[in-house]
Design brief:
By secondary structure, the chain is mainly α. It is about 80% helix and about 0% strand.
């Protein structure tokens, strides 16, 4: 397999995984600090999706850190195939959750003209923005993994 930026066991991969974990964690924190997020299904889905994203990204960040410490590159076809499937599944779930939650926040701000919930609406918006940032970084990782698998 080819060795290029973003492949498992490189610094770029570690930075991408840490940023995925941080953005997803920030999204969860922003959403759960409101008192009424559990009343809206899309927001609950966002929490579940970002929770899965945190687990997946942190696990792979630890694997990247271990690989960097041992100076080994993870280019096993089976491992890369697992990374491709996991990245694409979490990317799809993250995009769906961020889009659904984004639709709800647009409904509150644009369609209703104002948000009657107050400060919670700003937290909803911040949570959605962080979810989209998490999705952007996971989509970059998933494309790199797919490219690595195809370059075989």
């Amino acid at each position: 397999m080819k060795d290029f930026s973003g492949t498992p066991g490189t610094v770029t991969s570690l930075v991408l995984r840490i940023s995925q974990c941080l953005f997803a964690s920030g999204s969860i924190v922003c959403m759960t600090t409101t008192s009424s997020f559990f009343n809206i299904t899309a927001f609950c889905y966002l929490i579940a999706s970002m929770g899965l994203q945190v687990i997946w990204s942190c696990a792979l960040a630890f694997l990247d850190a271990y690989s960097l410490a041992k100076k080994k590159v993870l280019h096993n076809h089976i491992v890369v195939s697992l990374f491709v499937v996991g990245d694409w599944v979490t990317a799809t779930l993250s995009l769906a959750a961020a889009s659904a939650s984004g639709g709800i926040t647009v409904l509150y701000f644009s369609d209703y003209g104002h948000c009657s919930i107050g400060e919670a609406c700003q937290k909803y918006q911040m949570s959605v923005v962080l979810a989209f940032l998490s999705w952007i970084t996971i989509s970059i990782s998933s494309l790199i993994m797919l490219w690595l698998l195809a370059a075989g």
